[in-house]
Design a protein that fits this description.
- GO terms for molecular function: oxidoreductase activity, acting on the CH-OH group of donors, NAD or NADP as acceptor.
- Pfam families: adh_short.
- This is C-factor.
- It contains 7 helices and 9 strands.
- It has about 230 residues and is of the alpha/beta class.
- It has one domain: NAD(P)-binding Rossmann-like Domain (Rossmann fold), CATH 3.40.50.720.
- Strands 3-2-1-4-7-8-9 form a 7-stranded parallel sheet, with helices on both faces. Strands 5-6 form a two-stranded antiparallel ribbon.
- It is globular.
- The chain binds NADPH dihydro-nicotinamide-adenine-dinucleotide phosphate (NDP).
- The site of NADPH dihydro-nicotinamide-adenine-dinucleotide phosphate has 27 residues, from helix 1.
Length: about 230
Amino acid sequence: MGTIVVTGASRGIGLELVKTYLAKGDKVIATYRSPEPPSTLTLLQGTNQLTLHPLEVTDSQSIEAFAASLEDTHIDVLVNNAGIIGPDHQSYSDMDVQGWKQTFEINTIAPLIITNALLSHLKKSRSPKVLTISSQMGALSRESIGMFAYRSSKAAVNKVMQVLALELKAEGIIVCPVHPGWVKTDMGGDEADITVQESAEGIVKLSQSLTMNDSGKFFTWEGHEHAW
Ligand code: NDP
């Protein structure tokens, strides 16, 4: 049984990851960005298995406060899940530039800053892992059009995690970006391929099976390696 941190846990894939890890007997520290914990998470409380903490992933003070609240807790798995699809206008001819920057702050920059802020807690684990929920929409190996802000933010976070994996290898920390599938959430929509349960089950299973040899690889929720 481990101690898991999930960011962006108020709904969607993050919420389902919390439920899935709890069901497997892990301790979960779930973060949400609203001032008060959302009912989706408070409803899951009842045992000391689940701790809730506010975290706005782009706010350095919020990140510091979260890291400080952990005191001497060790983290076995950090799931950088919080993400946004980006602005309504993100085509080459009609780009909301401010929205593009915000997409980068949340999807690309925050996972690195948060991982670094929690590094001392990860180092206390015997087998620390960092999974960053990315997307195949950022894969350079797949030709596709549109969604410039989202695609570029996920392509960039893939590179960030590949570099980080190399840099943290000596510390024994496994780092992998993960494509969660096309999932029925507010972001994925009703037409998506898979349910949050399928995606979360796959990601949890993957997180349990990863070894140091896997660090720096891009995986799918099914546990297959994804082409960059
Ligand atoms: P949802 O839109 O359902 O949920 C997004 C979560 O991220 C919410 O909990 C939201 O909090 C949180 N969040 C967003 N911005 C911030 C922020 N600035 N600080 C803290 N939390 C924040 O998305 P999904 O569950 O579908 O997506 C989860 C991850 O999976 C994302 O990284 C997404 O890019 C990725 N993904 C999803 C796919 C899909 O098909 N659904 C496909 C590929 C990748 P709040 O409730 O407060 O808004």
